[in-house]
């Protein structure tokens, strides 16, 4: 289906995409039951994780994130105690920001621009992933390639380059384009190549071999590829394509990629708002309310008819968490749609996801700089509030 709408509507939609972070026309879906892969086993039991754009990396022991949401030092929060420390194991280190002798401080791409002349060479302070006892990030190497890096999760050692992803235009523009998102699973990295006229979704081995283009738009169309998520044996991603500067004839939706078959198929047409997947069900919110779409039956059920405007959604083991950006309100629902509790904080700007223990949000400090805040959801019967 193609739509022609006014520019203001499209800009509102694409603003949400930017804030985040040719498929086969076959619409057949493999709905074979598979275990969820958005959960980690810990000594405390199963912990379901669901994060928007991988701003937080999750291990069995805790959480990794950049101090200022997209900047600052690399931090670690212990899962049990909730204590947060810079990810540096040097005993006499003061852990000062931009002290390059501290293992928690890393140069951004472009930090050496004035001194070295159009040389990127740094780690992108945005997205992180924990995979098989390593912490992964994307950066710009000295030859201005976007590259995948990894580091030990105990605060020791330096970033090691694993694979080059694509050549950037940094040498000519001096501008680093963040990858928006990437995902690692089963020994492969999935990422969006933003250095093409139209974005491509690409997969390759962690050593940089066996490159495969999963999605690319048709000739004459501009594409935005975003919001990668894994559930069961499948990778999910959203696509929005359009023509010209006036954003005409835009179309899109949610796709499911089967790595075993090497094929993508449309799951739900025009589903371009935040979503999350659990088993056969896709959850999202819109003007109709909190919705649940069955991929097997291809039917939609409205679980709660409270109207929503493109809310951010997080699935935990017990709850559906909905964050309303306009109202700065976080609401927890049971999976049958029953509302449990709402927490409002006018200083909140975003909820980036979480797990069965806590949700992670973004707020501002006294200097109006972005910083993290968390919400404990293990007890919903008492007073709940976001805490820095």
Description:
The structure is a single chain. By secondary structure, the protein is mainly beta. It is built from 3 helices and 30 strands. It has helices spanning 7-20, 113-116, 170-173, and strands at residues 39-42, 45-51, 57-58, 62-66, 74-78, 84-86, 122-123, 129-131, 134-140, 145-151, 160-167, 182-185, 188-193, 200-205, 212-216, 222-231, 234-243, 248-258, 263-269, 275-278, 281-286, 289-294, 299-304, 312-315, 320-324, 329-333, 339-344, 350-355, 358-364, 370-376. A 5-stranded antiparallel β-sheet has the order 1-2-28-29-30, with no helix packed on it. Strands 7, 8, 9, 10 and 11 form a 5-stranded antiparallel β-sheet that branches. The longest helix is centred in the N-terminal third of the chain and has 14 residues, at 7-20. The radius of gyration is 21 Å and the shape is globular. The N and C termini lie far apart (44 Å). Residues 1-9, 21-37, 40-47 and 112-118 have low confidence and may be disordered.
Task: Give short descriptive properties of this protein.
single chain; 388 residues; mainly beta; five-stranded antiparallel β-sheet; 3 helices; 30 strands; 45% strand; globular
Shape: globular
- Major sheet description: 5 strands, antiparallel
Strand content: 35-45%
Number of helices: 3
Average pLDDT figure: 83
Total beta strand runs: 30
Tell me the strand order in the biggest sheet: 1-2-28-29-30
| Rg computed from alpha carbons, rounded to a whole number of angstroms | 21 Å
- Helix proportion range: under 10%
């Amino acid at each position: 289906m193609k739509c022609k709408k006014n520019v203001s509507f499209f800009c509102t939609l694409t603003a949400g995409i930017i804030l985040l972070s040719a498929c086969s026309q076959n619409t057949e879906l493999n709905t074979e039951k598979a275990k969820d892969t958005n959960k980690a086993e810990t000594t405390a039991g199963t912990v379901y994780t669901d994060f928007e754009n991988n701003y937080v990396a999750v291990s069995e022991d805790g959480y990794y994130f950049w101090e200022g949401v997209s900047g600052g030092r690399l931090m670690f929060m212990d899962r049990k105690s909730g204590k947060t420390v810079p990810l540096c194991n040097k005993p006499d280190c003061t852990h000062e920001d931009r002290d390059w002798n501290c293992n928690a401080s890393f140069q951004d791409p472009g930090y050496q621009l004035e001194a070295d002349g159009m040389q990127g060479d740094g780690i992108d302070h945005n997205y992180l992933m924990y995979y098989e006892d390593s912490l992964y990030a994307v950066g710009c190497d000295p030859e201005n390639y976007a590259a995948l890096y990894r580091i030990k999760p105990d605060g020791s050692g330096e970033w090691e380059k694993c694979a080059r992803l694509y050549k950037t235009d940094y040498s000519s523009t001096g501008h680093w384009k963040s990858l928006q998102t990437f995902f690692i699973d089963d020994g492969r990295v999935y990422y969006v190549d933003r250095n093409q006229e139209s974005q491509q979704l690409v997969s390759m081995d962690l050593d940089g071999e066996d490159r495969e283009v999963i999605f690319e738009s048709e000739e004459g169309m501009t594409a935005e590829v975003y919001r990668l998520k894994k559930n069961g044996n499948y990778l999910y991603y959203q696509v929005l394509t359009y023509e010209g500067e006036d954003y005409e004839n835009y179309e899109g939706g949610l796709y499911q990629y089967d790595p075993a078959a090497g094929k993508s198929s449309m799951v739900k047409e025009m589903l371009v708002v935040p979503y999350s997947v659990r088993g056969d069900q896709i959850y999202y919110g819109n003007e109709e309310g909190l919705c649940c779409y069955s991929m097997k039956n291809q039917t939609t059920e409205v679980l709660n008819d409270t109207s929503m405007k493109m809310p951010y959604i997080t699935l935990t083991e017990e709850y559906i968490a909905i964050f309303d950006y306009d109202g700065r309100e976080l609401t927890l629902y049971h999976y049958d749609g029953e509302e449990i509790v709402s927490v409002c904080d006018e200083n909140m700007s975003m909820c980036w996801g979480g797990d069965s223990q806590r949700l992670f949000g973004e707020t501002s400090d006294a200097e109006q700089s972005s910083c993290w805040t968390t919400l404990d959801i293990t007890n919903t019967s008492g007073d709940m509030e976001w805490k820095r």
